Known about the structure:
Radius of gyration: 16 Å
Strand content: 25-35%
Number of helices: 7
Helix content: 25-40%
Mean pLDDT: 96
Strand order of the largest sheet: 3-2-1-4-5-7-6
Largest sheet: 7 strands, mixed
Structural class: alpha/beta
Amino acid sequence: MADIWTDRWDERYSKSEFAYGEQPNNYLKEQLEKLKPEEILFPAEGEGRNAVFAAKLGWTVSAFDISNEGRKKAIELSARENVVIDYKVGELQTLNYTNGQFGVIALIYAHFPANIKSQLHKMLARYLRKGGIVIFEAFSKRNLEYLAKNEKVGGPKDVESLFSVEEIKADFNNYDILELEETEIHLNEGLYHNGLGSVIRFVGRKR
């Protein structure tokens, strides 16, 4: 992945404040509390708020990101909360996860570059066991309308990096859809997710 992408996230995560706060994403929290803890993977996990929350619930947590600064903050947060997370830095294809290793994969605002996002979704599927669950929340293509009114809501500014219901159906075509919707929500997550936005929410079970 281009160094400019890594540098962007290192810069964002190098500040003392947590870019998206220290509390878990509401949708993730709601979904995890329905499930029995097991092995879970958090791609593009940033500063670790969701991974640490899962660990506090008793999940065995793995996470990765391209940002060393994000990992530093995540390890700091996990130490403060007295939990352990296995957090790696690198791109997915360079990490040594095993096929079927995880019972859940949580993609929370995992906005990968447009040219690789669908490919990464399909790559991740191999690491999820049969019957495993994907939990997904990220900005929809309609979020550009919200972003134009309020920059504080955050999210990518190019439509190709955003998601549609149709894209999610295509990327996760080997899953039973438990939930899938485009919806308006009010975000209050740290410095960069604040205000009304449009998101895609998806829960799927791998066939």
